[in-house]
Amino acid sequence: MFERIVLGFGVSEGRMQRFLLACxxxxxxxxxxxxxxxxxxxxxxxxxxxxxxxxYEVELAIDRARIxxxxxxxxxxxxxxxxxxxxxxxxRTSMVALPTLLTRIATLTRDNPRQQRTIASLRQxxxxxxxxxxxxxxxxxxxxxxxxxxxxxxxxxxxxMRAVRKLADAMVAEEQxxxxxxxAEQQASVRVFYAxxxxxxxxxxxxxxxxxxxxxxxTRDLAASRDSLRDFADTLEDLVNERTADLTRANxxxxxxxxxxxxxxxxxxxxxxxxxxxxxSATATIGALIDRAEARAPDxxxxxxxxxxxxxxxxxIKFIRTSTQKMDRLINAILKxxxxxxxxxxxxxLDLDTMVDTIGASLxxxxxxxxxxxxxxxxxxxxxxxxxxxxxxxxxxxENAVKYLSPDRAGQITVRGRREGQRVTIEVEDNGRGxxxxxxxxxxxxxxxxxxxxxxxxxxxxxxxxxLAYRLGGVIEMASELGQGTTFRLNLPAKLDTTNADxxxxxx
Amino acid sequence: MNDHQSVSIIMIEDxxxxxxxxxxxxxxxxxxxxxxxxxxxxxxxxxxxxxxxxPQRNGPALVLLDLNLPDMSGTDILAKIKxxxxxxxxxxxxxxxxxxxxVEIQRCYDLGCxxxxxxxxxxxxxxxxxxxLGLFLSVIQVPETEG
Lengths: 508, 147
Hints:
The complex is a heterodimer of chains A (508) and B (147). Chain A has 508 residues and is an alpha+beta fold. Chain A has 3 domains: 2-220; 251-341; 345-493, Histidine kinase-like ATPase, C-terminal domain (Heat Shock Protein 90), CATH 3.30.565. In chain A, 73% of the residues lie in helices and 9% in strands. The longest helix of chain A has 140 residues, at 157-296. Chain B has a single domain (8-139), classed as Response regulator (Rossmann fold), CATH 3.40.50. Chain B has helices at residues 16-28, 41-49, 74-81, 102-110, 123-139, and strands at 8-12, 35-38, 61-65, 93-97, 115-118. Chain B has a 5-stranded parallel sheet. Chain B is globular, with a radius of gyration of 14 Å. The chains are: A alpha+beta (508), B alpha/beta (147). The interface between A and B is medium-sized, with 23 and 20 residues. Chain B: Keywords: Phosphoprotein. Chain B: InterPro entries: CheY-like_superfamily (IPR011006), Sig_transdc_resp-reg_receiver (IPR001789), TCS_response_regulator (IPR052893). Chain B: Residues 8-134 form the Response regulatory domain. Chain B: This is Response regulator.
């Protein structure tokens, strides 16, 4: 159930993230498009403004040119009529300014061949006009006003002037036409900009909407899976409690079984040992009988009799004895373990420093004998637990460390501890002979030992330690390398809570 | 004991071997009183309270009691013997058993057991304990039963 939830969760989360990222990317892309469109539109606007200015400049220049042309014509006519030099001066000034203006117009409209053509014909027209005018002026200057007027009357200046005006109008019209085209373009670009803006806006709204919906759905899913997870946690707790109760029951049963078995095994053992002893004393009697028989009537004693009475019987008895003694020790060990399992645990605040000191003091002789030192990394953490159990665990571990030191080097045994949240870890480290990796689990089993069997013991200590550690809600593990040393790590609750733990009464 | 011939020893022990070893060692200690052996609680109780030759009708006795019996717990027999108004309440009871559980020992003394001895598995210790018990039996005073 748990796996399914996690799996479903993970998949939807990944897909969800990708989807949201895509949405955000799309939104950003829309924004970038809007930015580009705005930039483009602004640039287009600037260009248009420049073009409009240009058109006005050209129109202005054309108007001024027309004014100059009209002015020059008016002043010439004035001169021809009156012969006063004021008019001539005005005419000259106008005619001097005109070419500059025309050149300016040509420069402004140099990119437009139609305007260039028009301006060329305008120049030509003006040149022809100027020639005609110079003729009438020259005649007037000579003082022949009548001839000048006749000449004026004969000339086609009025027609030419009209043509000039028409050309100028054409130029203005051309500029207006260009302006109209540019206006249309400008409007088109503005339309494009607005279209882009609208599109991007629509896209953004769409993305936001989709994202919102997705997030909402995701949140709903999340809430749903959170709820189911909570329900699951609740059931899990019940399940754990149930299992714990089952385990406690099973453990109780095993304890009881161990107790009964070990206890009931003792009775027959008493008989075996007792009657073996009787047998032994009987053997002694028979031995004495053989001795007497050999002394008084050697012929009735066969070698087989001698062998049976002096060797076979004592040997058999010896083996029965050692075996029953060993069996007795093993049964006692099981009994001790099962009894320990039934003991009522009484948690109290413990001073581990003092406790380890006491254990160290009780081992002073062995430590001195082996030239080993016991170091305590003070202060050891505070702990609330069962005094006897902790004492037995620590003294077993430290005794083991002393027992299995390496003869090659000075023994170093260190006891240290640390608090880790609600747990306390206590380490007993030695630089002794170590335990082969294959035996790491085995040494915790009852009657199992590791390495050279050169030390007395039944293989009970660590089994006992582990049973006690479990009993205190803890675990014990080890790290060891053969020939390097061993570290036993005891992890216990900092404060042993017996409300849930089994507080069994010890019985028979 | 008051009179070796009159005080009988009643041994309630389900294990024949144990019974034999106990008897042997008691005899080795010089105790010659008659020993009546029962291997279950029911017949033992019947003998104690009802039999014509039993202690209730026939003089003082001393009970050697094993706690692990096939048909009932030794403590039940103890409770019955030591019942406050029972006729055998003053009869000395020596509990001789393999159980060395602290609580069980306490319970036996609470019920009125006079001596509690744990059978040592080691035979030398066992034999010695029984012989010492024999010496003890030879000096203790056993009251007359009432009734």
